[in-house]
Amino acid sequence: MRKLSYFVAASIDGFIGAPSGDADFFLPFVTGDFLDYLRDEAAEVLPTAARRAFGVDERATVEYDAVIQGRASYQIALDAGITSPYAHLREYVASRGITESPDPNVEIVSGDLVAAVRELKRQEGLGIYLCGGADLAGQLKDEVDELVIKTYPVVLGSGMPMFGADFGVDAFTLASVRSFGNGVLVRTYRRER
């Protein structure tokens, strides 16, 4: 069965963005050995434009072959005139507002999101990258098999949480921790099923 991995940037206090969803304040930390990590080891979760800029767009995917993102996350790409922000992956966008896909590589999921993700997980293939945002992650919290949290050395105090969900305790096991010269940590947790 394929795994659903929530690969997400967060502050020390667990917020993935400002209340508005903006997360540009993380960008100054994309430097040095952390930038090398993103380019060399995590390029599959980078948008296609970043992969092109890093010269890794032709690199084969080995970890993920699909991405699911929420309507608000996808809108950022649409506003920039990009209809397929993760062209190297099969793209799914959870939306009730978009009735027709603007790109042949993007499938709109407008019905039962959990059922759709469970069906994706049953299909043959590599992992599924959960891009976000908080509402989508909250809806899929029980389906997340792995958390990869890029923790940036900032405290926000409030903002968009990692999961927009009701209170509930879900245990994960720490699989690895990597630290980088700029203070960023990448922690990987796996759910024991």
The low-confidence parts are none
Count every helix, treating DSSP H or I runs of 4 or more residues as helices: 5
Q: Label the structural class.
A: alpha/beta
Query: Helix amount, in percent?
Result: 10-25%
Radius of gyration (Å): 16 Å
Distance between the termini: 12 Å
Question: How would the global form be characterised?
Answer: globular
Mean pLDDT score, rounded?
95
The H/E string reads: EEHHEHEEHEHEEEE
Quaternary? single chain
Can you walk me through this structure?
With about 190 residues, the chain is an alpha/beta fold. Helix content is about 20%, strand content about 30%. It has five helices and ten strands, in the order ββααβαββαβαββββ. The strands form two sheets. Strands 5-4-3-6-1-7-10-9 form an eight-stranded mixed sheet. Strands 2-8 form a two-stranded antiparallel ribbon. A hairpin with a 5-residue loop joins β9 and β10. The longest helix is centred in the N-terminal third of the chain and has 10 residues. The model has no long low-confidence stretch (mean pLDDT about 95).
